[in-house]
């Protein structure tokens, strides 16, 4: 967990990141960047990981298992060096015109002006998320709990992946820092897997969801934020 200028008297605005706030899958974009632009991880290792991930998706493996498997590629990698490469990767992808979903970004800035604590909740790693959090003035990053030893990642997670029920798990634990703000807080996601996260706070929003997610939402009734809709 990464914290910055937290005000525990204020409610929170929780944001899923990939496909909610930004238009790319940060984990896979970053892996492609490392594979193509750096020599941080041996080519054979990244190639094998790409194949294994494709096989897991094809086999419809649980997303929690895919997420945990992904972080094995960073075993032995320097935490500081990965953070620096995360900043270089971010400068490259953030320059693209369609990087942000503007309606979700408008909501983030609205809540920021209203005094909410802004919180990212993502299955991505801190190296990918911290540059974005710093650029937007986000207060907290709840993300993949990558184990570190002696300044290097071990390739393991120390707790459950931050996806599906895992996101709700980390939000509930995070809210223990506050006093009675859950009902006044909001959360934004885009996928069925974000339903547990949206249900942990007073108001949950789906950002331009797929037809499958819309259908599933008929029983949940989270508010849908359409891409054409201006921030209220």
TrEMBL record:
InterPro entries: HAD-like_SerB, HAD-like_sf, HAD_hydro_SerB1, HAD_sf
Record keyword Lipid metabolism present: no
Pfam families reported in the protein's UniProt record: HAD
SUPFAM superfamilies referenced in this protein's UniProt entry, alphabetically: HAD-like (SSF56784)
Protein name: HAD-IB family hydrolase
Alphabetical keyword list: Hydrolase, Magnesium, Metal-binding
Organism whose genome encodes this protein: Thalassomonas actiniarum
A GO term for molecular function: hydrolase activity
Keyword Metal-binding: yes
